[in-house]
Amino acid sequence: MSDGRVRPYFTTRGLIPENQETPIHFLRGSIFDKGYWFLRNHFQYPDLTINSGNLLITGAVKKAFIIKLEQLKTLPSKTITVPLICAGNQRAEFRPKVYGEQWEEGAVSQGVWTGVPLKDLLGVSGLEENALEVVFTGADRGTTPNVDEAVLYERSLPMNKALHPDTMVAYEYNGQPIPFKHGYPLRLIVPNWYGMASVKWLQKITVVAQPYEGPFQTDDYVYYPDPHTDEGKSPVTTIRVNSIIQQPLDHSIIDEGAHVIVGLAWSGEGQIEEVEISFDKGNTWEAVTLAQDQTKRYAWTEWQYNWTTPGKGTFTIQTRAKDSDGNVQPEREYWNRKGYGYNAIYRINVKVE
């Protein structure tokens, strides 16, 4: 690159459809450039047309209407910093192993989104008394293992989440039009929920009077705790409290002396209140230093810890985060056969020479 900096590459998890993992361990800062956003797709990219910027709002509403992108931009907007985290992030860590894209820690990114609150658009249409959920349809389509014919990517939100003041129809990312691969021209943004809820290439919003049961609602993005049956299943929704170490890397060799351990923490239930670190396999814990902007209620938390190595040898470093609602990273992950929501205490091993 012309600026002389070394730029890390994505880790390819799939090409058809394209799934690329962000080099999270090498990136610093709270906002990611579009070039470093992870890519998660279920199908190949859609073909956009001149009408792709038209958004239809229909269903159990008093007045269905179509709003064009240019019209949407004239409405009162808001701008919020939101991380998007794939529900399958860290799937590679599950034991026993599970099937699916073997994401490590890099199916996460964060940026600044600008758009119109969904509740304002639904306010224009007016909700019928029997309105129960809101279904969001993207332009991407394809087949799934359980459906032979092509389907569109669709997800629904319960009415209380759809009407949350920060659930928005976004048209800008980091002050620019949303990049095509991340949902241009319109993308739903759902703070605090895993990324599958933030439907890309949004083309239709349908208010329904009955529970939505599409394949990405009732088959995928469901926790199945039993390896063989559907007993105890529950929907994947809110991001679980988590922390990761960005540097040093797992199984790296470092010199004796002073080191700065850095990482990230996030939660969907509340803001990060504390991150602790352990060097004795969890027998004792120490608090790290948090870097937080209290004005950004959804943003992840950067943290660091100054460590002076006690001598040569091998060391296990663990971290755990706690949020303002009292949620703490567990010792072991919540195993489920599709590999969603991994958030066990984070651990790496390093060798000091």
UniProtKB/TrEMBL annotation:
Species whose genome carries this gene: Alkalihalobacterium chitinilyticum
PANTHER family: SULFITE OXIDASE, MITOCHONDRIAL, SULFITE REDUCTASE
UniProt keyword Oxidoreductase present: yes
Chloroplast as UniProt keyword: no
Cofactor: Mo-molybdopterin
Annotated protein name in UniProt: Sulfite oxidase
Pfam families: Mo-co_dimer (PF03404), Oxidored_molyb (PF00174)
Ranges where the Moybdenum cofactor oxidoreductase dimerisation domain occurs: 237-352
Keywords carried by this UniProt record: Metal-binding, Molybdenum, Oxidoreductase
Oxidoreductase molybdopterin-binding domain boundaries: 42-215
